[in-house]
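Worked example 4.2. Below are the chains of a multi-component assembly; read each line carefully before continuing.
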Amino acid sequence: DAGVIQSPRHEVTEMGQEVTLRCKPISGHNSLFWYRQTMMRGLELLIYFNNNVPIDDSGMPEDRFSAKMPNASFSTLKIQPSEPRDSAVYFCASSLGAILDTQYFGPGTRLTVL
Amino acid sequence: AQKVTQAQTEISVVEKEDVTLDCVYETRDTTYYLFWYKQPPSGELVFLIRRNSFDEQNEISGRYSWNFQKSTSSFNFTITASQVVDSAVYFCALSEAQNQGGKLIFGQGTELSVKP
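Applying the procedure described above to all two chains together yields the following structure tokens:
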């Protein structure tokens, strides 16, 4: 069975450019999560969706970040405009959706903003 | 407030040694789950175990074992007869029912290095 799929795996961009990260959750999973991993802050939740509806976006750092889930099999995390401090590994995870279900992570997207 | 502390930043052992990774958590919720994830050098996060707050039984899976003690708010992870392939960063995480079970709160991770 396919796990969580993320693309691209690596992204290098210039400051000020728009960046779009993509995620396909495990089929049948109803919850989707975006996390960011940095040396300074570790792993932190940015936003999560349940049945395509955003439930908690309190971790989204600022208005430059936005996330969408137009259907059950696709989500995007967009940064516009990007800044060097956005450089991090961005993970997408999905779970079946019941409370406290195990979250399964994708391979991550390593973003570098120059 | 909810928090997960992994006090050991780095551990280095020689192959075949046993090693225990410590995890201490804080929560006011009575219903919660605790997790361990492994992050090998390749970078992905691999799920290892989930334990709910009402089940304090220890768990063993091959060379891996977990000790959950609510009295000390700890969920420690032991690798028996460590191998080089165990080298990775290990994360302990907490999920609380009051957060609709959505948010995983991670510790800072313990980097384990197993030398041949």
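Take a moment to check your reading of the output against the notes. The longest strand of chain A covers residues 42-50. The two ends of chain A are 36 Å apart (CA to CA).
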